[in-house]
Amino acid sequence: MVLKEILVKDVMDKNFLIAYEDSPISEIKEELIRDYKKEVFIYDKADKVQGIITMKDICNFVREKESNINQKCAIDIATKGVISVSEDSDLLICRNIMLKNNVGRLAVLKEGKIVGVIRQEHIRDFYYMKVEETSEILKTAINYIHEAVCVINNKGIVIVWNENAEKLYNLPKEKIIGRPLDEFFPNAINMKVLKTRKVIENCYHEPRDGTHIVISAAPIILNNEFMGVVSTDKDVTEMKQLSDKLKKATEKVNFLKEELEKISNREKGLVIGKSKVIQQKIEIAELAAKSSAPILILGESGTGKEVFAKYIHKISGLEGEFIPVNCSAIPRELFESEFFGYEEGAFTGASRKGKAGYFELANNGTLFLDEIGDLPMDMQSKLLRALQDNAIRRLGSERDKEINVRIISATNRDLEELVQRKKFRMDLYYRLNVIKIEIPPLRERKEDIVLFIKFFLEKLNREYGKDLTGIDTDVINILTSYKWKGNVRELRNVVEQMVVLCRKDFITKDMIPEYIIHDVERNEDMSVLDKLDKKETGLRELLDSYEKYLINKALKESKGNIAKAANILKIPRSTLHYKIDNYGINVND
């Protein structure tokens, strides 16, 4: 059974919430929490669907608008227009609609009425079911193989022990599965492969006294990750059949994993960002990808210039590879051999087979020239010649070779200034700068910081085997206030540090690196001082304004606790009470 054979009516959730346009937001919030629901559909007085509100919408509204939620009704924050499907739609259609519209749920309508809801997890759960089904099919297939088969994981624990293994060793699977293999067979070939990760074929082996077999064992690699070892006493034909079955199962599992990633990560292409400024850059990139024109990507270090280059290559549909080159890391004497390649015997130490250069490797694809501003002048002229002629000549060769390469270059330096200083060739600059994309620094696209945090948190959770459920609001506020001189690269490092050092299931303010907190607080202080400095007032009024700011700051840090705030300010509690009354400060704000 495949995804398009599963109908909505078979898996939809018939237990959903509805509210009316004039329903108070506070009541809707309480109902969502009480019923463990993620959304509520909004009806008008004629019982027609008008919109939808999610718990995330309510949280965002409270945080961004800073208004009293008790004064708002459902229609004030509802997302107008509900995307819907019919009962007889299949899950494949639902998945495509969700991806296209970037939504996590669909209303199921029948005769104009909501009869159920399909959520992202319904589709995800089905994929997990198919993964388990594939595993059961694989186990059944292994039991039909005539030889004994044993599979251990990367810890040496037995996970597959087929029926012929039971017969051969007189050892039922109930006793060995889930146990270390070396408890039963200390000299097992599998354990050697577990250490070396190298194939062993047709080896005479005595796994236990009185048992003599010819055995082969091989490591199992899935997505470049070592998963374990499979072994069989075999003739070569049976081993090939087992390998084919494992390969097909691996391909199917990989397909299911890719589909899950599409559902859980709906960011456009390889580029993350919903801010207006980054969406404009994505639009330019998409238009540029349709042509063969050279592209120059500018931006500070860590802004994601190579990510943009990969995205352009991905959507361009080019048949060739994406070849990245760090121009600042190429020694002058190796420039020609690295870029253009060389023939056999071109110089002392040259490979007997010769070597293809970057241009040949990127033929019919994309050559990404990173840090192009660091390329020395003599190398620039050689690069320009290749770009003008669309041809290169290997070292030691007498013939030119035509090339068809898309050039994308990138730098964090001011190339126009380098041209004026005679540090960069003007003709090469104009050759590269047909289409220019300037990637804004992270501090100019603050609305994307939360997206990056979410993306990195999910990725690092998987990478480190953790299950962090979220981030405290104070953490988000601080991270969005920080200037991020290292841009996205610095943000990733900070999130990784917090994930690695987190002992809880929730990231809190105390896990933020101290230098970030100090920088944000210093910037807040300087901001207040700048504002005070611009006022045309006397010294007394300036001092009073700054004192009021410090008191408010201390109250905020102490969460309204007068005693703690007085301790922070290092003044008596009675003095603080007097100043609060004198300045008319609301402690509850």
UniProtKB/TrEMBL annotation:
Q: Does the keyword Transmembrane helix apply?
A: no
What keywords are assigned to this protein? ATP-binding, CBS domain, Coiled coil, Nucleotide-binding, Transcription, Transcription regulation
Q: Which residues form the CBS domain?
A: 12-69, 78-136
List, alphabetically, the SUPFAM superfamilies matched. Answer: CBS-domain pair, Homeodomain-like, P-loop containing nucleoside triphosphate hydrolases, PYP-like sensor domain (PAS domain)
Annotated GO biological process: regulation of DNA-templated transcription
Query: Which residue ranges does the record assign to the PAS domain?
Result: 134-179
Q: Name one GO molecular function term.
A: sequence-specific DNA binding
Q: Cross-referenced SMART domains, in alphabetical order?
A: AAA, CBS, PAS
| Alphabetized Pfam families for the sequence | AAA_lid_14, CBS, HTH_8, PAS_9, Sigma54_activat
PROSITE patterns, sorted: CBS (PS51371), PAS (PS50112), SIGMA54_INTERACT_1 (PS00675), SIGMA54_INTERACT_2 (PS00676), SIGMA54_INTERACT_4 (PS50045)
Parts forming coiled coils: 239-266
This protein's source sits in the domain of life called Bacteria
Q: Which residues form the Sigma-54 factor interaction domain?
A: 271-500
Matching entries from InterPro entries are given as: AAA+_ATPase, AAA_lid_NorR, CBS_dom, CBS_dom_sf, Homeodomain-like_sf, HTH_Fis, P-loop_NTPase, PAS
Under the heading NCBIfam families, the entry gives: sensory_box, TF_PrdR
Q: What is this protein called?
A: PAS domain S-box-containing protein
State the species of origin: Tepidimicrobium xylanilyticum
Which lineage do the record's taxonomy fields give for this organism?
Bacteria, Bacillati, Bacillota, Tissierellia, Tissierellales
